[in-house]
């Protein structure tokens, strides 16, 4: 049983405050959706929690099972059980997918997997996401299409088995088939054990495949409304206008 | 000054066997402005007196002929005329030359390894090597520089019609070595030349690989890798002179620098002369600056005197490790040092695959490992 607890989080980029007091608690077994218009600070939340150097935490706290994530380096956070699936996965020239994944698994599990077992695990993971096995030898994310990059993120999610996964617009840029494959991956991950998911999205589309327990509406750098899955239906029908005007008022 | 009033090329102005034709460099000249002359131990001004102490040892493929010859051997200096002061000094000062010949239509069955070993920082020597690959012959040659010396030399690669020569030159000198060297490849019709330069050690290494073509169809691929540490000066000056039609050249040099006073220089000169229609050329230099206090100078020059080229381009970039690469790897739990190591390996990986000799590839890999562990 794990809990990611975000309390009164304020985050700035340079002099500009982006997050203005975010409170969220995600427990294993729960799926939370954060929805909001562009520029509302959704991605900032994801990157700040993961520890991207561009973002400065000005106040607040982020705890994973009571441990202060903000005191940890980026890699320590990942090893503590946090995972961020990125909206724009980074191309790393000259580092093969296989080498990258083996290094990551070794770091997260604390020991290098046996080569044969790793090969088997990798193949099974790639098959499940309909990833061409040839990708194992390609450079990480280099020349991948948008959909291939997102599948590769979910492959990492399934291999690294974090306690809490933050998925930042994993659905953006996917066609319907890719969306289904990626959603199935997320659902396998949810069913695999005690894991919590924070799904950040602009559109309700992915929520047809990945059912959230809680929906939070983000605007102006904070949560402005919370509810159950029915809130997503309301957003689908009415859009974000009500919230954006509320913020500027 | 318009094109019509320029000399034939501004990049390759002068060549002569006579030292006196080249004034002693002051450091203000374009071709010397990056080089720390005070650290050349007199190679540039004639005060470096020969003491000997560089032993040349050749382990040849059975099909390959190796000779040690005197200055008067008529074959020497045919493929290359010295292009600067130190090169001319070396040409007029060497005592013995090594001639490696790959006979006509022969494919050497294994690499020929030429080891040049300096006996210590007190050793001062000039050298000359001629590698002659006769028509339709094929060979792999390794030049392996070790130990320490103050050494200037010229290496001629004469690659005849339809022949292929692949060279790996490793500058793995001790920290106090000074090495100024010219490698010139002259390519005959449809000849293929592959050069892989690895420069790791030495106080000052200035290596000038150049290529000329005598007939169409020549194909040159020049790859270089260097790792510069604190207070090292590693300089590579490339010149590809396209003077005949339908030849190809590709230059890719990549280096990493770390430590105070680490200095890399890369000059990439390509001339496409008026008669060299159908030329296809590209040159690239990238520098990865790993710490403060390191400096990379990268200057590509492309001089095109004809409108009829198949392709001509260059690119140069020097910068730090990309924070986004490191963040991505760290976000998957990989510790910073390991992430850095992966990214730097990745920077060199594709080039390393080009090294034809597995033992050398392994050696370069472990040298990079050792550099990263510093």
TrEMBL record, chain A:
<dbReference type="GO" id="GO:0016887">
    <property type="term" value="F:ATP hydrolysis activity"/>
</dbReference>
<keyword id="KW-0067">ATP-binding</keyword>
<dbReference type="GO" id="GO:0005524">
    <property type="term" value="F:ATP binding"/>
</dbReference>
<keyword id="KW-0547">Nucleotide-binding</keyword>
<dbReference type="Pfam" id="PF00005">
    <property type="entry name" value="ABC_tran"/>
</dbReference>
<dbReference type="InterPro" id="IPR003593">
    <property type="entry name" value="AAA+_ATPase"/>
</dbReference>
<comment type="similarity">
    <text>Belongs to the ABC transporter superfamily. Ycf16 family.</text>
</comment>
<dbReference type="InterPro" id="IPR027417">
    <property type="entry name" value="P-loop_NTPase"/>
</dbReference>
<dbReference type="InterPro" id="IPR003439">
    <property type="entry name" value="ABC_transporter-like_ATP-bd"/>
</dbReference>
<feature type="domain" description="ABC transporter">
    <location>
        <begin position="4"/>
        <end position="245"/>
    </location>
</feature>
<protein>
    <submittedName>
        <fullName>ABC transporter ATP-binding protein</fullName>
    </submittedName>
</protein>
<dbReference type="InterPro" id="IPR010230">
    <property type="entry name" value="FeS-cluster_ATPase_SufC"/>
</dbReference>
TrEMBL record, chain B:
<dbReference type="InterPro" id="IPR055346">
    <property type="entry name" value="Fe-S_cluster_assembly_SufBD"/>
</dbReference>
<dbReference type="InterPro" id="IPR000825">
    <property type="entry name" value="SUF_FeS_clus_asmbl_SufBD_core"/>
</dbReference>
<dbReference type="Pfam" id="PF01458">
    <property type="entry name" value="SUFBD_core"/>
</dbReference>
<protein>
    <submittedName>
        <fullName>Fe-S cluster assembly protein SufD</fullName>
    </submittedName>
</protein>
<dbReference type="InterPro" id="IPR011542">
    <property type="entry name" value="SUF_FeS_clus_asmbl_SufD"/>
</dbReference>
<comment type="similarity">
    <text>Belongs to the iron-sulfur cluster assembly SufBD family.</text>
</comment>
<dbReference type="GO" id="GO:0016226">
    <property type="term" value="P:iron-sulfur cluster assembly"/>
</dbReference>
<feature type="domain" description="SUF system FeS cluster assembly SufBD core">
    <location>
        <begin position="119"/>
        <end position="347"/>
    </location>
</feature>
<dbReference type="InterPro" id="IPR037284">
    <property type="entry name" value="SUF_FeS_clus_asmbl_SufBD_sf"/>
</dbReference>
């Amino acid at each position: 049983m794990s809990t990611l607890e975000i309390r009164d989080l304020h985050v700035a980029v340079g002099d500009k405050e982006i997050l203005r007091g975010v409170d969220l608690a995600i427990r294993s077994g729960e799926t939370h959706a954060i929805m909001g218009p562009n520029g509302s600070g959704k991605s900032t939340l994801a990157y700040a929690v993961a520890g991207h150097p561009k973002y400065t935490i000005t106040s607040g706290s982020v705890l994973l099972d009571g441990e202060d994530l903000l005191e940890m380096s980026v890699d320590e956070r990942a090893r503590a059980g946090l995972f961020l699936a990125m909206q724009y996965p980074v191309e790393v020239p000259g580092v093969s997918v296989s080498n990258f994944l083996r290094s990551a698994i070794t770091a997260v599990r604390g020991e290098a997997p046996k080569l044969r077992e790793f090969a088997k695990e990798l193949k099974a993971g790639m098959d499940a996401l309909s990833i061409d096995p040839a990708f194992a030898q390609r450079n990480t994310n280099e020349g991948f299409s948008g959909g291939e990059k997102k599948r590769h993120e979910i492959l990492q999610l399934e291999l690294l088995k974090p306690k809490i996964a933050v998925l930042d617009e994993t659905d953006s840029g996917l066609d319907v088939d890719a969306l289904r494959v990626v959603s199935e991956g997320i659902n396998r991950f949810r069913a695999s054990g005690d894991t919590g998911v924070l799904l950040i999205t602009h559109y309700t589309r992915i929520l047809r495949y990945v059912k959230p327990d809680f929906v939070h509406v983000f605007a102006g750098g904070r949560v402005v409304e919370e509810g159950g899955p029915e809130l997503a239906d309301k957003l689908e029908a009415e859009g974000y206008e009500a919230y954006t005007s509320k913020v500027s008022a | 000054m318009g094109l019509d009033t320029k000399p034939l090329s501004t990049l390759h102005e002068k060549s002569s066997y006579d030292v006196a034709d080249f004034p002693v460099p002051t450091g203000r000249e374009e071709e010397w402005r990056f080089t720390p002359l005070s650290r050349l131990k007199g190679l540039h001004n004639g005060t470096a007196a020969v003491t000997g102490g560089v032993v040349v040892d050749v382990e040849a493929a059975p099909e390959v002929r190796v000779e040690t010859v005197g200055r008067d051997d008529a074959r020497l200096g045919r493929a290359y005329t010295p292009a600067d002061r130190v090169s001319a000094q070396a040409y007029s000062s060497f005592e013995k030359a090594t001639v490696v010949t790959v006979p006509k239509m022969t494919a050497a069955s294994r690499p020929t390894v030429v080891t040049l070993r300096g006996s210590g920082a007190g050793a001062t020597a000039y050298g000359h090597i001629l590698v002659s690959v006769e028509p339709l012959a094929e060979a792999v040659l390794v030049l392996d520089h070790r130990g320490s010396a103050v050494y200037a030399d010229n290496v001629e690669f004469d690659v005849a019609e339809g022949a292929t020569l692949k060279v790996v030159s490793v500058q793995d000198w001790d920290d106090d070595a000074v090495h100024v060297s010219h490698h010139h490849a002259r390519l005959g019709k449809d000849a293929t030349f592959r050069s892989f330069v690895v420069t790791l050690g030495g106080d000052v290494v200035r290596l000038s690989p150049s290529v000329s073509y005598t007939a169409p169809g020549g194909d040159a691929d020049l790859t270089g890798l260097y790792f510069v540490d604190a207070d090292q000066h590693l300089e590579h000056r490339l010149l590809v002179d396209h003077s005949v039609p339908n030849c190809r050249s590709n230059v890719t040099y990549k280096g990493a620098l770390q430590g105070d006073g680490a200095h890399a220089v890369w000059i990439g000169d390509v001339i496409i002369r008026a008669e060299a229609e159908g030329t296809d050329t590209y040159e690239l230099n990238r520098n990865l600056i790993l710490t403060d206090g390191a400096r990379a100078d990268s200057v590509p020059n492309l001089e095109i005197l004809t409108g009829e080229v198949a392709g001509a381009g260059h690119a140069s970039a020097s910068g730090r490790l990309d924070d986004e690469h490191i963040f991505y790897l760290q976000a998957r739990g990989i510790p910073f040092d390991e992430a850095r190591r992966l990214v730097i390996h990745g920077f060199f990986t594709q080039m390393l695959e080009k090294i034809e000799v597995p033992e050398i590839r392994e050696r370069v890999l472990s040298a990079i490992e050792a550099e990263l562990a510093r």
